[in-house]
Amino acid sequence: MDKAKSHGRFTIKMQKKLVVMFLLVALAFAGLSYQLFSITRDRGERYKKQVLSQQRYDSKDIPYKRGTIYDANGSVLASSEKVYNVILDAVALLDKEEYLEPTLNALRSQFGIDISEVRSYLAEMGEVSRYKVLAKRLSYEEITGFIDLQNEENSLVKGIWFEEEYKRVYPGNTLACDVIGFTTNDYDGQYGLEEYYNDVLSGTPGREYGYLNDDGELERRTIAAEDGNSLITTIDANIQSIVEKYLLKFNEELKDNFHPGNGAENVGCIIMKVDSGEILAMASYPNYDLNDTRNTDALIGMNLLDENGKRVDYVTQENLSTLDTEEMMYLHLDALWKNFCISDTYEPGSVSKPFTVAAAIESGSIVGTESYNCEGVVEIGGKKIKCHNRWGDGYLTVQEGVERSCNIAMIRVGQAMGINNFVKFQHIFNFGLKTNIDLQGEARTDKVIYYENNMGPTELATNTFGQGYNTTMIQTITAFCSLINGGYYYEPHMVSKIVSPTGATVQNIEPRLLKQTISEETSKTIVEFCNTVVTGEHGTGKTARPAGYMIGGKTGTAETLPRGNDEYVVSFMGYAPADDPQIAIYVVVDRPNMPHYQRDDAKFATKIVRNILTEVLPYLGIFMTEELSEKEMQELEALQIEIMTPPEDVQTEGEEGEGPTPEGGGGEGSGEGANPQGGESPAPTPGVEIWKTFPIDPVTGYAVDPNTGDFVDPVTGAVHGSSFEGGTAEGDSQEGGESGGQEEEGAQFPTPQPQP
After folding, report:
1. Domain that holds residue 684
2. Which of 14-28, 91-105, 312-326, 512-526 has the highest mean pLDDT?
3. What is the model's pTM?
């Protein structure tokens, strides 16, 4: 029994051995710890640098290519271009003494690098460094000279390699800047499509790294990067450029006119397909260069703001230097970068009158044949509200009230409808709600319209003609399209398709019908009424009509707050053709730079519309239906010469861009005219659709071959010869400007109060 117990416990001898072994292990551990401490203390910084250097050299990210943004025809609006960083491998350079001077001289001659700084770095880190960036983001053309020196027979240029990455480029510079937006660090989208579709355009970086195998040898593994998807937008770059040309022309004509600064605080234009919600063009002025977003020269002419965002002056070259803090600079740049067409709210003025009439007819409050007496002024809620014709227009039908833009007639229509119906249809038309357009930065307007609980008789009266509540351009034109297309409200959108890096279709974005705002019968009535605004004897929108076409629409003039400051927002909302609306156009001029007595003239907007449509309608294949006067013929001939004669400092041949690759294919697209539809049709052969680059004859609507002078069908490319003739006929008359609704001097329009 005692013997068995002895086997179950340690003897004294065994215990002594264990103690000795523990002491030896503890001493060894202490020695190793001291050695590690000594290494860390004496050479830790050096080893740290060496390890980090090896990590950068042996393990590195492989950048992905951000997706391309195309216009509707396949022209590149935004793309990512491969660039190169110059990397120094100091260990390799110092491997042999004879490498040093030839390599340094090559760095200086090819890249302008300060070699004294390189020498200092080599002296400090030359034994351990394998990764040092000497120059960044060079094009391939900029590095070819150095590569040639490296590749020379018996070259002594060593220790330099090139790291690839991508830079975001915008071929159109300012073209569609509000729509596209830009990126920071070439990967993070800011504003516009770049931000809204950032996740779609972004890819996944790859990885190249080294590791030790079982034999202790260094091996490499590469995980390829995944490029981002691309966008096919609804924007037509040709229409977009026409719009921007005339916004710039307006600014050049009026800048520094009455006061220093731009031709207006803002000028915006949207062109939309009425039956789909597709945006063909969207632009505002001032604009900026997407390739140089922080260029402060673009701020000149804009409002000079204080720290609270209040205007104190206008930005000039002289006071630009006062923006000396990051906060103040960003405050002004943010005002430049935002998209006026979706981000700014304003009182719409008389362009809202068709909505008032449509709501009244649709609700059964009127039938549309009523007449109302305009005496020039009406007192409601103790306030006197004036019509733009202060002497009154007498008895007017509802149609004549729209044609003449009579405030009193609209007030009577609103009174017949009542507050509940008016507010109901405000929401049906989506005022106060976002349109959810696929662009970053759309403003909320739910706090700047009225509701049943805060609208009184005076508020109802002023709202009927577009004063007292706020909206955005995108809200207004989207709702207006439903007025003229049979009552169908489509969600506005900027992208029609998402495609993969190989060109395969990832997603088709079809037009989205959200609701019906009014009946087709009411819509026909509104079109008839709006047509008279342009064609009627007393129509306020006659100057919007392009020669040879009949269009419809509505002018707008709204006095800004505070009332009595003689500052106005003037506008024109129109559509073409008048008998079959296909596109809608909306131009807003925010506080034109004119003397006080000339600021309330809607012709600032109507003339921009006329200029734009004169070029856009023939381009879209919408041909003339009206005869031309001799004066109009002369004007159009002059315009044709202007279009076909590019400025001397502008390159006439467009750059060849990349287009989306056909679905399932592996090749590159070929720029303008490349197939944006993935695999639905083959990419065109270069030169086959060259006629699409020809200038459009505004008289006939045909393209003109600049080499032969022949007329070419802009759609099919069929040649009609040089004897094709357009018609001749009378010109249009000129109308006076429209003034917005005004109260008795000193009175204030009510403004909506925030809802609980």
Report:
1. 655-729
2. 512-526
3. 0.80
